[in-house]
Amino acid sequence: MAQEQDNTKSLNIEIDEQTAEGTYSNLAIINHSVSEFVVDFINIMPGNPKSKVKSRIILTPQHVKRLVNALSDNINKFEKEHGKIKDYDNPPIPLNFGPTGQA
């Protein structure tokens, strides 16, 4: 009986190969309403002034708060191991960063 109770508390999470590869994002735009937060993840590429949302995650306010706490905890652990993460005040969002090629 105890083993059955332990099994009901476990969560089996699977991830397919494409999702496991992930999606790179270097910009997030966050909006909210009374009942939800919407986080759009975007990848801005050098020399391309137009970018598309690569992923949109919709969360309840309670889940956003849990996510913020989990991120904060992980940042603290990261900085203890690797040193403080350098932050920049109001970094510009470059629309054409990096070298541009010419033929």
Rg from alpha-carbon coordinates: 19 Å
- Unreliable stretches (pLDDT < 50, length at least 5) are none
Largest sheet: 3 strands, antiparallel
Q: What share of the residues lie within helices?
A: 25-40%
Strand content: 15-25%
- The ordered string of helix (H) and strand (E) elements is HHEEEH
Tell me the total number of β-strands. 3
Output the strand order for the largest sheet. Answer: 1-2-3
In terms of structural class, how would the helical and strand content be classed?
alpha+beta
The outline comes out as: extended
Q: So how many helices?
A: 3
* Head-to-tail CA distance between termini: 72 Å
Mean pLDDT value: 86
Would you mind describing this structure in some detail?
A hairpin with a 4-residue loop joins strand 1 and strand 2 (37-42). A three-stranded antiparallel β-sheet has the order 1-2-3. It is built from three helices and three strands; from the N terminus they run H-H-E-E-E-H. It has a domain at 23-82. The protein is an alpha+beta fold and 103 residues long. The model has no long low-confidence stretch (mean pLDDT 86). The chain is extended. The chain has helices spanning 2-9, 17-21, 61-82; strands at residues 27-32, 37-42, 53-59. Helix content is 34%, strand content 18%.
